[in-house]
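thread: overnight batch results

M.L. [08:02]
morning all. the overnight job finished for the chain we discussed friday. pasting input first so we're all looking at the same thing
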Amino acid sequence: MVLQMFSLKGKSGIVTGGGSGIGKAIATGLVKAGAEIVLVGRRQERLEQAVREMEPFGGPIIPLRADVSKMEDIRAVVDHTLKQFGKIDFLFNNAGTIRRAPSEDFSEQDWDEVINVNLKGPFFLAQAVARVMIAQKRKGKIINTSSLIAVQGGKRVPAYAASKGGLAQVTKTMANDWAKYNILVNAIGPGWVKTELTAALQQDKERHAEILSRIPLGRWADPEDLVGAAIFLASDASDYITGQTIFVDGGWLAM
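M.L. [08:03]
and the structure it wrote out:
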């Protein structure tokens, strides 16, 4: 049946930033589709709570506290996944952070924090995972979480814009470099999603209304709105797609 193309039964992988928001929603969807995952985040209690909520749908789901902006933690994530499952079929680079300030006031500390988490970490984790896939001669899927801010500048988020634009571009580079190994690299570009990272904007009535007025579907996304694209890109249904960013934005970029 055609739906078998979208099944993740028997596939193992990693989801970073999996304790809440988009990462948690994607991880839950992957588990429902049959995957077994290592769920990575910086807050142990959140990871354990997320695992408890996901376990009724499948698994196994292994929580792992790690900071993917640190090279030693990246190695630990890959080693732990191999110890648990013996292979890595997919990686979702979803861990992210944001700092808001006018460009004229943006600090070096905030710049470095955002770039390290949003760009450095995803690249080097993808590199470590790709090396495993290459060594095992396995087809693999690597999916990065970019943003519509990759192609639009946004306001008061210079480091975030740089990191997400950079991630969209390095997605293409990795796709080109690793196509010969049958490792497909793509990105999801969320629009305005109701998460902790956008809480300040949701509470700003004027800015919230300004954003909402530009979304053709007339609402902000829920994290679960990203799940369909995530399953598609992790599954066999996307086996001839690489180097792309799929924007899930309610029509924002079409305006």
